[in-house]
TrEMBL record:
Cofactor(s) it depends on: Mg(2+)
Key words of the record: Magnesium, Metal-binding, Phosphotransferase system, Sugar transport, Transferase, Transport
Cofactor note: Binds 1 Mg(2+) ion per trimer.
Superkingdom in the source lineage: Bacteria
Positions of post-translational Phosphohistidine modification: 75
Source organism of the structure: Thermoanaerobacter uzonensis DSM 18761
Protein name: PTS system, cellobiose-specific IIA component
Coiled-coil segments: none
SUPFAM superfamilies for the chain: Enzyme IIa from lactose specific PTS, IIa-lac
Molecular-function annotations in GO: metal ion binding; transferase activity
Sites where the protein binds Mg(2+): 78
Length: 105
């Protein structure tokens, strides 16, 4: 796999993670916490996939196999970091929805 294919895989996994995280939030708004949890788990799985690719690239660089820092690579890293942040914040928001639901009853 060349560097562009590797980078696009990170972007794909990060995009899937972010979509799953926002799907989780939509379910939480409807108080469907089981589906919200399922979507958050899918988001985490996608983040792990992207992170493994990133870690592999870091290991290769540490071993002396340098990659050019392209705009595309920076874009992929940005996608991954925003997906991680979105998932973490949405997980906290879901906890708030759970409190609202408990106090509503």
């Amino acid at each position: 796999m060349n560097i562009e294919e590797i980078v696009f895989q990170i972007i794909l996994n990060a995009g899937n993670a972010k979509s799953n995280a926002f799907d989780a939030l939509k379910h939480a708004k409807k108080y469907d916490f089981k589906m919200a949890e399922k979507c958050l788990n899918k988001a985490e799985d996608e983040i792990i996939k992207a992170h493994k690719i990133q870690t592999s690239m870091l290991q290769k660089e540490a071993e002396g196999e340098r990659q050019e820092a392209t705009l595309l690579l920076m874009h992929a890293e940005d996608h991954l970091m925003s997906a991680i942040l979105a998932k973490e914040l949405i997980a906290e928001m879901i906890e708030l929805y759970k409190l609202i639901y408990q106090n509503k009853e």
